[in-house]
## 1
Amino acid sequence: MLCTRSGSHPYNLSLFGAVTEHLGEAKAEEWLKGLVANMARSPKGGDTDQIKAVASGECGIALTNTYYLARIMRSSAPEDKVIADRVGVVFPNQDSWGTHVNIAGAAVAKNAKNTANAVKFMEYLASPTAQEYFANGNNEWPAVPNLKVSNPALQAMTGGSFKSETIPISAVGNNQLKVQQMLDRVGYK
């Protein structure tokens, strides 16, 4: 039985927009109906709540971001060690289109006073050095391809291989209205 946050949460809208792009609207709506039919409870809480619900047995599976699990895995708190021992990670679609990843972006405002420095800052954020900080400090998967990280939680999750999906952000964005309408039709709260 599934636990998840609200269907209209931006992370879920992104995921469901990508699924719609892969499957088409009709099949994506059927997939969403299946999720609703297999919920252990009404959508609520955040990622850590979902992980704890799986560890307690309330849910059999949860849709979450891995950095929340990595935080639990890297924690020294005894209660977190128990949670980490009771859950595992499944990256879907590794044999097909790959696993959906969060979409993050940056932009410079049209009326920015210091455009050149803003661009330099964004370039820094996308650099191997900054991406290593994100991976090792915040448990985020690096955006720089093939960047080696020394985060034991991230390494433990993949076993050395991971295939991410490559849907363009424009396709995911173009599906948002359709996705929200599908969520309403299938009763995904």
Note: The chain has a mean pLDDT of 93.
## 2
Amino acid sequence: MKEQLIKEIEAYQPYNEQEEKDKVLILRCLRNEKDVFTRDNTLAHMTASAWVTSLDRKYILMAYHNIYDSWSWLGGHADGEEDLLRVAIKEVQEEAGIQNVNPISKEIFSIESLTVDGHIKNGVYVSSHLHLNVTYYLEADASQALFSKPDENSGVAWFPVEEAVNKSSEPWFKEHVYSKLIAKMKQK
């Protein structure tokens, strides 16, 4: 599966300079880093995110992440799983409580190298590191009941597309990730 992901990332056409540079970094880490699919690699490890839209494409699903103190997309660590689409779907199910979420496409929607500041998780300090992230474009029925995951987030909600970027309190994510995802979404 790792080789399949490498092929998918090699074939992925970067949207902008950020993705061009991050594509090189992610491929280098996939080829050279040990345990890149697990948190045992404390320098950088693979993650998957989900850009989840309602069926009518008018709303974006976001969670209020406790560590980052901000509304953001859903996603998480690969934790040994090399099928990152599966990881993205599982994370939406776990973080938002919805079960019926489906890929709009099984292709990679976006890639990012994300810095994670040092923080406390479950009472243990986690050093600053990189998330080598692959994002997938998913959809779900917005009428499904939402449930937060208290150990990770303190809220889950649908926001109108035009408001989603401004819900985040993380300037880099607003400018370089969420704005990009909305622009790409409008092209589909």
Note: The chain has a mean pLDDT of 95.
## 3
Amino acid sequence: MKIAITTDHAGFEALKALRVFIESLGHECVDFGPQTFQADDDYPDFMFPAAKAVATGDCEVGIILGGSGNGEAMAANRIKGVRCALFYGPVIAKTAINAEGDISDDPYEIVKLSRQHNDANVLSLSGRFLSLDEMKQATEIWLGTPFSNLERHERRIKKLDEV
């Protein structure tokens, strides 16, 4: 799979290690920078090109990093055709996770749901709230989880993509 990757200063070191990990899984990474560390860089400058690569089909999916991951996800989601999910830490669901009433104690279930229910094509990771091991685990789970293709999810995604 061809994956767009990028970060701002807050994920600069982590992205290097995450790239090696992603490539060890057999994927190709297209790095949208930054190439050098600059503490005052602006995340949209890196997120927009990576998100556009996903939206145009140049890359199949994207993995982006930032301090919280919030602004980075917001930037990516400004690009039509991008559905960016944010992950900033393992969490256990308090109630049923789907319409069937299933309950999960998997702390990475939210990552799976972003693919299964929302067909997220970009994953935003928090460089300040996740360890490198958590980033790797979330990335591997996310890349390995397919969209469910259930009609209700397709219908909802179509509504998102029409805006």
Note: DSSP finds six helices and five strands in the chain.
## 4
Amino acid sequence: MKKREEEEESKDPVWLTTFGDAMSLMLTFFVMLFAATSLNKSKIEPALGSLRGALGIMQKTKPAIVSTPLVVEPTQKIAQQISQFVISKGLTGKVKVKLVRGGIRVSLASPILFELGKAELKQEIFPLLDEIAIILKKLPNEIVVEGHTDNLPIHTKRFPSNWELSAARAINVAKYLIKKGVSPSRVGVVGYADSRPIYPNDTPEHRASNRRVEIFIREKNV
């Protein structure tokens, strides 16, 4: 009996054991908290982010720093810039700027560009082509210069047909733009002769309208 009483007196109370466990947990918590605040944030944040992602936890993060892409001007803005210059020079009746599917079409009437049956550019058109070149050389857009004629046949030593004439006119406009700084890698040339009229070739006025060079500025996809 005496031995049993001595054993019971030597045992700790039950609440003391629980209290000891709680204190141990709290001590461990504060040690981990101190260690966490001492860690390099630049190293711990990616690790925490990966953990959150794996657990499906969404959080607000700062946007990643990326290089600034090439600014691509909207086709509407390009058309507006060219139109403003055309209006300022009183060329609205001879130069048409249109937004079309896939880009911009700048149509230049042949009489302001060339003498009849010739492909050499008139000097009067240089200021307009200069302005167009200033706009185009800053852009990444592809450019196609198209030559068009009416259906009146031509047969000279230099131009056996309207195909050669339309191509030569388009080439000279393209070469001028390239000379003024437009990258040749973005310029293409095509001669359509009289195959794509905008009016029937039934009157002198309609034939004059069909004789033209069109600069097609392709829309740039971003």
Note: The radius of gyration is 39 Å.
